[in-house]
Amino acid sequence: MSATDSLALQAPAKINLFLQILGRRADGYHDLHSLVQAVSLYDTLYLEITDRGFTLTSDSDQAPPDPSNLIWRAWDLLRSETQISSGVSIRLTKRIPVGAGLGGGSSDAAAALKGLNRLLKLGISNAQLAKLGARLGSDVPFFFSGGSAIMEGRGEQISDCEPPVDYFVVLVVPNFAISTVDAYAKLRFYLTRFSTKSDINLAASGANFFRTLNRVGNDFEHVVFPQHPELESCLKTLQRAGAQHAALSGSGSAIFALFDQAPDPELTAAITSRYGWQVYGLLPVRLTRE
Ligand code: C5P
Hints:
alpha+beta, six-stranded mixed β-sheet, four-stranded antiparallel β-sheet, globular
């Protein structure tokens, strides 16, 4: 096997630094306004050219290698849109928790599109790949950005931006998942009114940046916290430990906290022992485009 016949790609997780739900659309989706940031927690995809057909293997029961897997759907989509004559096998190593609002499945789909484009020399532009990605899921186009972006529409409208990235992220993943579809469905019962798009100044740095994030927040918290009060209690623990900003990511179940200095390792130990949840120390990351 030569180096041009195989390739490994890192698929990062994302967090929503703020997330507003602006309203329900005629197509059943919701219009969003969110600042999304890639973070240093990765799935890995190993791609290899084979004689024919497609095989997918996964090391996780949470992301089974069947046709519903977004990696499989990315392959089906590219095969229907382009002339692919060779076969491909993809092996997935899953590290991003599933059902946590971290965009792992979408990131895997984006990495599959990027990897297949590169490996099979399809010559599709980054912008075109992002557009194809939007057909697989609302969060997919973000992963074709530079790693920090404002997300609008149902998620497919991505504007790159350069907010501060000089902070530390503590990510807490509880031992339960939340279905995005259910969280959106519950919005109707919990939200008395949708948000109005907030004015934000992304040039703000330091305390002003964190203040902006605090002011805007995440609308899903109104839906998720009443059902999972222990999440709100953990969020308060993170705030008391000196977090500049702490919030739910996406529709949950993960919560994150941003610190302007490396957080005390005792904090991780305290959360693990009190809640029994997974804690990660991460950094915001930039992504390179195709
Ligand atoms: O686009 P994706 O397949 O990831 O969306 C999953 C579900 O989440 C949709 O079927 C819809 O119920 C909900 N959703 C929404 N508004 C969005 C994104 C997702 O209502 N902007």
